[in-house]
Amino acid sequence: MAKKSRFNPAAFAMTSLAAPAIAVVVFMVGMVIAELVQNGVGVRPPPVGGFILTLVMIALWGWIPSAVFGGAVLGLVLSCVPAPSWRTLGPAGILAAALYVLAGLGTFAVHPSLSYLFAPWASGGPNLHDPLFWTIPGSIVLAGGLAGLMYARFAKRG
Q1: Are 107 and 119 in contact (CB under 8 A)?
Q2: Nearest to 84 by CA among 147, 144, 149, 19
Q3: CA-to-CA distance for 147 and 12, rounded, in angstroms?
Q4: pLDDT digits (tens, 9 = 90+) for 25-62
Q5: What per-residue string of b and e applies to 7-35 under the rule 16 or more CB within 10 Å gives b?
């Protein structure tokens, strides 16, 4: 009989709080790489204190959507897959983040002011044809995958 995986609340809390901050780091690294490729010169990094404050603010602001969407997909995975591994939880994190991005865009379409509370990155009126707009949702989706991998690792440790 296959070993049934159990929900690990500490690992979930840690990774759902970390996912929004990971998205900021992925976004900043992507912007630095894009600047290097485009101009051959790196951008000046923000002051460390301001960067840490930004990470904390976005982690706290994004924690609820991260927990809601990540928890829903994790619950589905744990109920369908007997012992999910990193091969399952990484794509599950990508799926949860992609659902959040779609919900954020949908929230803006329904009520732009409400999207500021739920998905502040979409509140400025997303220009879907602008490649720069997609850097933030791309960072969110990649961070979701990394958070899924982190959950797999932390849940395994117990």
Answers
A1: yes
A2: 149
A3: 9
A4: 888 888 777 777 777 665 566 566 667 777 777 878 88
A5: ebeebbeebbbbbbbbbbebbbeeeeeee
